[in-house]
Here is the input.
Amino acid sequence: MVLAGPKSRPASRVGPDPGIAGSRVSGMRRWIVIVAAVSAVVIVAGAFLIWQKVKPPPVSAFYDAPTSVASSKPGQILRTEKVDSEVSAARLWRILYTSSDINGKPIAVSGLVAAPTAPAPPGGYPVVVVAHGTAGINQGCAPSIKPFGKVDDKNTAYEFLVGQYVGAGYAVVMADFEGLGVKGNNSYLVGEVEGRNVLDSARALKAFPDLKVNPKVLIAGQSQGGHAALWAGQVQPNYAPDVDIIGVVGQAPATDLEAMFRGVTGPNARGGIVSLLVMAADAYTQQYPDVKINQVLTSRGRGSLKNVVEKLCLVPAIIGTQLAKPSDLIQPSGLEALRSDVERNIPGSTFTMPILLAQGDADVVVLPAITQAYAAWLCAAGVDLNLKTYPGVGHFEIVDSSDHDVLTWMAAVRNGKPPTSTCNLS
Here is the structure.
């Protein structure tokens, strides 16, 4: 079953760019400077797969979906593989597990499990389910393929995706999402698929034979990952009532997608960032039957999708489309043709668990006004919400800047004492 989009929506009418995975590393900034020098346009984008500078790494046979997936249940573990850890206090595994596609058909999804080497406390390791940010749409862009790939001279993907949680004593599972790792349809910013993949990863972790975990689950994600985390919280009551979510964290989450995509195609749009709309157009025209790709993308746009965006991960794809104007790639009525699919993927406002939103006020990727409007929408719906704003913090600094507050909030929620909602504070 495909869920309809929300009947109402946050009253944001500004135009940021869609969420991109946050990077806390100086190497990301160096790449942005390079892009600016090449194109004379400053691109502000965070991405954790920056080590894939030319093409994605090869996808091993581990990621081949077994025939048994058709008869397996959501969350069932299909395959595991130990990952050689480069962090002495952490253990890691790749996993293949069953989830559901947009039509409810069983599919194989890959992911990463990480846990402390220290013994589990009584009741099992506390659990954080991580939803990663934008990586790209090529199979090889899956974060689980190379978790210790360098993003700069010092940091790895592991360190800024899951390391902070493992370091705090949590067991972590992170889905790659449909189409990454395991061959499948592009699911970029397809909320229901993301949400199902996240929830089924929690089920898989609960069944993981090598770890004893607590049944209560926290979900966290930044940018596109924030979008996925919110969707997981939204679809949980109907799709996975057995997954006991006690809190959801969104750091600079992608929420009002229509406003974000208008920013990509508007008069102040920055060339290469339009590749994100190209990725979403590819996903929506694969997942939904109502719009064809040639209604959204120009001939040049379709060529960029085939020859650049589908073959590279995020940052190289942005660089590869940098010199194009949005109008070179997107049909004049392209965004309008995609409108219903964009709207159905805006996260809703119905949550049964506390929500924490963290937003930098210097973010030019997900603009603060978008998150503030979404927060107001949640407050009006009676959601137990905390909104934290960080002065001078941009899109890819928000994870680092909010880590302490996120971990503090998580501990309070686990102890049954979530902080007082900020909805009624002046």
